[in-house]
Automatic annotation (TrEMBL):
Superkingdom in the source lineage: Bacteria
Lineage: Bacteria, Bacillati, Actinomycetota, Actinomycetes, Micromonosporales
Domain Activator of Hsp90 ATPase homologue 1/2-like C-terminal: 22-159
Species name: Micromonospora nigra
Transmembrane segments: none
Family to which the UniProt record says this protein belongs: Belongs to the AHA1 family.
Entries under Pfam families matching the protein: AHSA1
Name of protein: Uncharacterized conserved protein YndB, AHSA1/START domain
Gene3D superfamilies: 3.30.530.20
InterPro entries (alphabetical): ASHA1/2-like_C, START-like_dom_sf
């Protein structure tokens, strides 16, 4: 399994997930740069993602929805803030309605995804920062650790295909 560490830090308002992949940095970058590949790993296996818009450039927007086993759709968005291809990108990630308008009252996280060479492969570090300990606790209670871990662990299957 690629995920090697998960750190929840309510004092610093962060969730940090570390994963190691037996693939070069450029290949891991492509998982996020290509919307069809991103769909295969964004969201846990039982909630497949559909990427609607995908503009991975500063100021760009990525919109998506995940479909539950019962057919319910849950939408979200990224507002891309920085891109340093193929090493890192940052974005604000939020919950949305099905027209991709931000849902008030639900947490928005500021994320930095970094890919570095490590032991002949890539170490990915996913850092999400929340506005408050309550916002972080809210997503923890929603199962973000389990969902994100399951999603990231799908990358190995994508790399093998």
């Amino acid at each position: 399994m690629p995920v090697t560490d998960v750190q929840q830090d309510l004092d610093n308002l962060t969730l940090t997930i570390t994963a190691d992949f037996a693939a070069p940095v450029e290949r891991i970058w492509q998982v996020y740069a290509d919307p069809r590949q991103l769909e295969k790993v964004w969201g846990p296996p039982t909630y497949p993602a559909t990427v609607v818009d995908h503009d991975l450039t500063p100021g760009g927007r990525v919109t998506y929805y995940m479909t539950s086993p019962e057919g319910d759709k849950f939408a979200g968005y990224w507002l891309v803030t920085t891109v340093d291809e193929p090493r890192s990108f940052s974005f604000d990630d939020g919950f949305a309605d099905l027209d991709f308008n931000p849902k008030p009252g639900l947490p928005v996280s500021t994320n930095v995804y970094t890919f570095t060479e490590h032991d002949g492969g890539t170490r990915a570090t996913y850092v999400s920062r929340y506005e408050s300990a309550e916002a972080l606790q809210q997503v923890l209670d929603m199962g973000v650790v389990e969902g994100a871990t399951a999603a990231i662990n799908q990358i190995d299957d994508l790399l093998a295909s």
